[in-house]
């Protein structure tokens, strides 16, 4: 009989010895997911900043001068929050989805599944990395927009809340995509046909009031629209919908996606043989 069993006869193999939450394991997974992108910061932090700058430059030069004001602000100021939020959600999605797919392709996903981590702890650990990357990207782009355009957030805490919520929503969606995809081309298809349209067709570069009635109604079923619209209100003080309503919708969608990710981890869907 093992030393553990001698000291505690009621102990049985498989019992959790860490309490309700394995804090050490959770911290380790979150740290691993964070260091993954920090170790290649030129690709994960600097590159999104450059891409966001290029979007701003191209749209401002191409149509900014002719577009005029949108919702009472100049076009460059209007699209700045949308570009920031679009970049945040794309990077948050990439962090969790790439981590899972790379582990599955390389065959080392077992190293994540074998430690004594519950499904809840796995979800939170992966989310921590995605949210951290999203927030750091938002800070970098926000500083750039302040230096170039002089934009100071009108409601900074609201803007931060929507950034965190948006990063969490797309990080959870990235977990689902990483579980479903078994190859890089499958992940590329999910990114190109689902994530990118969600980001581009959610009011990033325009006010939804300009859309035809059918598209206007469809857009209001898209949680990403409320994330971008809420971030716009937090940064420049204008929005197409009520920020509180948008936050509620986005929070509900995030909890639903996180719950599904938890369930898939719990049953080992497409992860365990």
Key features of this structure:
273 residues
Describe the structure.
With 273 residues, the chain is mostly helical. The chain is 74% helix and 0% strand. It has eleven helices and no strands. It has helices at 3-7, 23-38, 41-67, 75-106, 110-113, 119-149, 156-180, 184-200, 213-219, 223-236, 243-267. α3 (41-67) packs across α6 (119-149), α4 crosses α10 and α6 (119-149) crosses α7. The radius of gyration is 21 Å and the shape is elongated.
Order of helices and strands: HHHHHHHHHHH
Mean of pLDDT: 90
Q: Would you report the number of β strands? A: 0
Unreliable spans are 1-6
Radius of gyration: 21 Å
Approximate strand percentage = under 5%
Give a quick account of the main beta sheet: strands, pairing sense, barrel closure: none
Q: What is the CA–CA distance across the termini?
A: 31 Å
Shape: elongated
Structural class: mainly alpha
Kindly state the percentage of residues in helix: over 70%
Helix count, per DSSP?
A: 11
Q: What is the topological layout?
A:
Layout: H1 3-7, H2 23-38, H3 41-67, H4 75-106, H5 110-113, H6 119-149, H7 156-180, H8 184-200, H9 213-219, H10 223-236, H11 243-267
Helix pairs in contact: 2-6, 3-4, 3-6, 4-6, 4-7, 4-8, 4-10, 6-7, 6-11, 7-10, 7-11, 10-11
């Amino acid at each position: 009989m093992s030393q553990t069993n001698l000291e505690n006869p009621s102990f049985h193999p498989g019992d959790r010895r860490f309490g309700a939450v394995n804090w050490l394991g959770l911290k380790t997974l979150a740290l691993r997911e964070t260091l993954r992108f920090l170790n290649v910061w030129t690709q994960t932090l600097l590159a999104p900043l450059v891409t966001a700058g290029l979007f701003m430059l191209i749209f401002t030069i191409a149509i900014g001068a002719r577009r005029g004001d949108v919702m009472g602000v100049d076009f460059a100021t209007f699209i700045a929050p949308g570009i920031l939020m679009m970049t945040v959600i794309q990077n948050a999605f990439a962090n969790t989805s790439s981590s899972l797919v790379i582990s599955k392709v390389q065959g080392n996903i077992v190293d994540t599944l074998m430690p004594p981590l519950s499904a809840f702890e796995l979800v939170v650990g992966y989310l921590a990395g995605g949210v951290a990357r999203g927030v750091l990207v938002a800070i970098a782009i926000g500083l750039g927009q302040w230096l170039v355009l002089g934009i100071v957030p009108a409601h900074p805490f609201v803007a931060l809340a929507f950034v965190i919520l948006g990063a969490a929503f797309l990080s959870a969606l990235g977990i689902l995509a990483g579980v479903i995809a078994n190859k890089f081309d499958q992940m590329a298809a999910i990114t190109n046909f689902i994530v990118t349209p969600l980001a581009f067709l959610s009011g990033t570069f325009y006010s939804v009031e300009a859309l035809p009635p059918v598209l206007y109604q469809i857009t209001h079923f898209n949680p990403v629209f409320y994330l971008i619209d809420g971030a716009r209100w937090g940064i420049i003080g204008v929005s197409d919908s009520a920020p509180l309503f948008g936050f509620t919708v986005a929070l509900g969608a995030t909890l639903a996606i996180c719950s599904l990710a938890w369930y898939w981890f719990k049953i080992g869907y497409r992860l365990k043989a």
